[in-house]
Each structure stands twice: as structure tokens, then as C-alpha cells.
From TrEMBL:
Residues 259-403 form the HD domain. The lineage of its organism: Bacteria, Bacillati, Actinomycetota, Actinomycetes, Micrococcales. This is Poly(A) polymerase. It comes from the Bacteria. Its cofactor is Mg(2+). InterPro entries: HD/PDEase_dom, HD_domain, HDIG_dom, NT_sf, PolA_pol_head_dom, PolyA_RNA-bd, tRNA_adenylyltransferase, tRNA_CCA-adding_enzyme. Keywords: ATP-binding, Magnesium, Metal-binding, Nucleotide-binding, Nucleotidyltransferase, RNA repair, RNA-binding, Transferase, tRNA processing.
Length: 481
């Protein structure tokens, strides 16, 4: 315990000061939840969450004297926030009145009832590892539901029966999945059973809240463990049904690999290829949400495109195109932003493009198109493509790796020679209009695309040659007459 408290050293003056202020006003104050849990995980807490016997109005009055600014984070839910700046350093705190929430089980709208004691407040929290507290200013450790024991044993339990806890807020099931990925915990049998029995209730939670938990899961150190629980519990069938759908029935001749396990392995390998968090942009600093989503979803078009061919083969023709559409549809349903939807679905669409390079016979034109089609996603596409090799055939794996090494080297050479990242037609829109004597509009757009294709196919040819190509194209257009 002494070692854990020692990790509070950077924030101890704040804790002591606040604790004494609330005590002087006749109220209790405790540091609670994640910050306390993190002390025992050798982490210095970054967020400071408190609970108090004071009412929101009383809390606000105390914080107004302590801080330089206060704000209402949800007065009806008992939460007041405050900021304090001293000597250029800023501290932000959130303090919530003891709670005893109830939910209607239909709309997920909480009916707030303020509680009377710290122990009663702790029982309504999601998991025992988050139901530990330190009373302030004394630093007395409070752990009525054995959260420290569960943390030491690596077990995820709920302070109240899991059916009650998940019935109060079904999103807690998603939080369980996230904590498996973030903290390396395993759900207790009764927790897993309740998740399986109540999985369908996640549908009453807003897509935005579910998305936020899914993002935290994917950005965790061990997302695979969480995703396996998501699938095993049945939650994935309601959150991201394309994932369990990858568990294709393997035919008796084992003519194709387990796509579900393959996808999780691709995710693991993509994570291993991320750059350091503080690395340059071209290293794809991790954790990278776009890369991880693309790795997980790259094959979701396979179930819809699987065909057993004469002679015993199996095919998934155009699964990358189908998969890109399914990816966009799912991410939109989860309320992801447009840029993320576009980037992830584009990577899914492009993830097979390299396999046409297997014999190394691509022309410079094909390499240019590969780069321009990937655009700003090129470095992620490199990593996704490399991660997609999960074969146990060592020779095949080495051959694929060498082929991609060669492709990357060719790309680097062309990028250096031609600045492919900024490739444009050698005549701009105004010059095209002047050569053809046309006004801006759809015809000019077609002419621009034609010259872009010429640039990709032939590389830099100069403005005179580009003008010749443009005029030759124009002579074949109906509008030229």
C-alpha cells in the first residue's frame, strides 16, 4: 500500500488540500475508481475522479474557492468540474456526489438518487477493480468488494450481481471487454454467463457510446483478447456482426483457413508494424485506429463471396470490393466520422492489390497507380498488406516478403524521381481549357482525367507532349466537332 500511495506524490498536495477543504465544510471526499486502481498497476493517475457526501451546490461552492474556474458537468447527475492554475501548472478535477442510480431498463435514462455513504456509492460502480477508494485527506484505503484481490488475481467481477449491474447499464458489458484488452483481466464465470445471457440488451445503448468503447478496445495493448471475448459472449453479434460471421464453417477437406482467426492474427501483426507513439507520420505511430480497423475488417466480404469450385477449390472473388462496402456500412452504423469510414473502407478495397505483383512483372505505370490509389494511406497499406500474410509455409512467406520489399523499393525510387505523392497532369485546368477552347464543366473534367491517366501511364513527358496527347484525345470526342 505504501508503494501505491507513493505514486500519488505528484498530485498529493492537491488531494490533501481538497480533502481538508471538504472536511472543514463537514463533508466526506474520496479519490475513487480508475485513479485508485492504477496506483496498484504501477501507474501514476492522470485523471482525478472524486466522490463526496456534499451536494452539487455545496461542491461547487468549495471548488469556487479552490480553483480558478468551475463548470457544471451534469448537475442533475451530481458532477461538478473545476480547474486550478498555479505557477503555470493546471489541475482539473471532477467531483460527483455519492450516487445510487436506477435505470428504467428501456431508454437507458438514469433516475438519479444521491446516496448516503461511500460504501453504497461503490456498490453501484461497474467492476470491483473500480470500486476502490482513498478517503481524503487521511488516505484511508476503502475496498469493501475485494477489488484489490480481484486485481491481483486478474479477475473481472462486479460489486453487485452481474445481472443487476448489466441491467442497470448494458454498456458495462462492453467495458468488461475493454478491460480484458486494457488490463489483461479475465471475466469471472458468472460475469461471462451474464454477458452471454444479456448480450441483446446492448441494443438499447446509443451507437455513439458503443462506438467509443469499441475504439478504446481496439486501441488497447491487447485488443485480440477483448475481441475474442466480444465474440464468445455473443456481444459481437449485435455490435459488429461481421466479426463472428467470419467463423465460416470449415469443410471436411479444410480447403480454406479459419478467416476469423486469420483476421485476428492480421490485427496482431499490423499492431507489431506500427511505429512508436512519438514517431514520424510515415512510421504510422501507434496505436493507429484506421490501420487496426482495416486489419480486423479486411476480409469481411468473404462470407458473402465464398464459392466452392469444381475440383475441390474455394474462391472469394471480389471480396475486397464487397468488404469495402460492408465496412463503410458498419462504421456508419456505429457513427464513425466520415474520414475514418472513407480511410478504412479504402484500405479494405485495396488490400489485395499487391497480390497481382507476385511475379514482379508490374510496369512503372502499375506502380504509379498503386501509389496514387493509396494516396495518404500508402504507409498503412504497406503494413496491412504485409500483415495479411499468415501462411505457415516459410518459403511462401519469405517469397511474399521479398516481393513486397522489391515493390516498396520501386515505389521509393519513383517517389524520389517523380514526386508521386503530388502527381498531377502536366497541364492544369486553365491550360487545358485554353488549349481546347472550352469553359469549365464536365468536359473539362473528362479532359483532366485523361491527362492524369497519361501521366500515370507514361510518367513525366513534358507540356508539349501532354498537349499533343490532349489534342489527339479531343479529336475523338463528340464535343470537338
Amino acid at each position: 500500500m505504501e508503494q501505491a500511495v507513493a505514486r500519488l506524490a505528484p498530485v498529493l498536495p492537491v488531494l490533501t488540500d481538497l480533502g481538508r477543504r471538504f472536511e472543514a465544510a463537514g463533508h466526506e471526499l474520496a479519490l475513487v475508481g480508475g485513479p485508485v486502481r492504477d496506483l496498484f498497476l504501477d501507474r501514476t493517475p492522470s485523471d482525478l475522479d472524486f466522490t463526496t457526501s456534499a451536494s452539487p451546490d455545496e461542491t461547487e461552492a468549495i471548488l469556487a474557492e479552490w480553483g480558478t474556474a468551475t463548470w457544471d458537468m451534469g448537475r442533475d447527475f451530481g458532477t461538478i468540474g473545476a480547474r486550478r492554475r498555479v505557477d503555470g501548472e493546471e489541475t482539473i478535477v471532477e467531483i460527483t456526489t455519492y450516487r445510487a442510480d436506477a435505470y428504467d431498463g428501456v431508454t437507458r435514462k438514469p433516475v438519479v438518487a444521491f446516496g448516503d455513504s461511500l460504501e453504497d456509492d461503490l456498490v453501484r460502480r461497474d467492476f470491483t477493480v473500480n470500486a476502490m477508494a482513498l478517503r481524503l485527506p487521511t488516505l484511508e484505503f476503502v475496498d469493501p468488494y475485494a477489488g484489490l484481490r480481484d486485481l491481483a488475481e486478474g479477475v473481472l467481477r462486479t460489486p453487485s450481481p452481474p445481472e443487476v449491474s448489466f441491467g442497470d447499464d448494458p454498456l458495462r458489458m462492453m467495458r468488461a471487454v475493454r478491460f480484458v484488452a486494457q488490463l489483461g483481466l479475465a471475466p469471472a464465470p458468472e460475469v461471462l454467463a451474464a454477458m452471454s445471457d444479456m448480450a441483446a440488451s446492448i441494443e438499447i445503448v446509443s451507437a455513439e457510446r458503443v462506438r467509443d468503447e469499441l475504439v478504446k478496445l481496439l486501441l488497447a495493448p491487447r485488443p485480440r483478447a477483448g475481441l475474442e471475448l466480444l465474440t464468445e459472449s455473443g456481444l459481437a453479434a449485435y455490435v459488429i456482426p461481421e466479426l463472428p460471421a467470419l467463423q465460416l464453417e470449415i469443410d471436411e477437406h479444410h480447403r480454406h483457413k479459419d478467416v476469423y482467426r486469420h483476421s485476428l492474427t492480421v490485427l496482431d501483426q499490423a499492431i507489431a508494424l506500427e511505429g512508436p507513439a512519438d514517431g514520424p507520420e510515415e512510421s504510422v505511430p501507434g496505436p493507429d485506429l484506421v490501420l487496426r480497423l482495416a486489419a480486423l475488417l479486411h476480409d469481411i466480404g468473404k462470407p458473402a463471396t465464398r464459392r466452392f469450385e469444381p475440383g475441390g477449390g474455394v474462391s472469394f472473388h471480389h471480396h475486397e470490393v464487397v468488404g469495402a462496402k460492408l465496412t463503410a456500412k458498419r462504421l456508419k452504423a456505429l457513427r464513425f466520422d466520415k474520414d475514418t469510414v472513407k480511410a478504412v473502407s479504402r484500405l479494405v478495397e485495396l488490400h489485395l492489390r499487391f497480390h497481382g505483383y507476385g511475379d514482379g512483372a508490374w510496369t512503372d505505370s502499375a506502380v504509379r497507380r498503386y501509389v496514387t490509389d493509396a494516396g495518404p494511406l500508402l504507409q498503412r497499406l504497406h503494413r496491412l498488406t504485409r500483415s495479411d500474410s499468415t501462411t505457415r509455409n516459410v518459403r511462401k512467406a519469405q517469397r511474399l516478403s521479398r516481393s513486397y520489399d522489391e515493390l516498396e523499393a520501386r515505389i521509393d525510387r519513383l517517389l524520389e524521381q517523380e514526386e508521386l505523392g503530388k502527381v498531377r497532369p502536366e497541364l492544369d485546368g486553365n491550360e487545358i481549357a485554353q488549349v481546347l477552347g472550352i469553359a469549365p464543366g464536365p468536359v473539362l473534367g473528362r479532359a483532366y482525367k485523361h491527362l492524369l491517366a497519361v501521366r500515370l501511364d507514361e510518367g513525366p513527358i513534358g507540356k508539349d507532349a501532354a498537349t499533343e496527347r490532349l489534342l489527339a484525345w479531343w479529336a475523338e470526342q463528340p464535343e470537338s466537332g
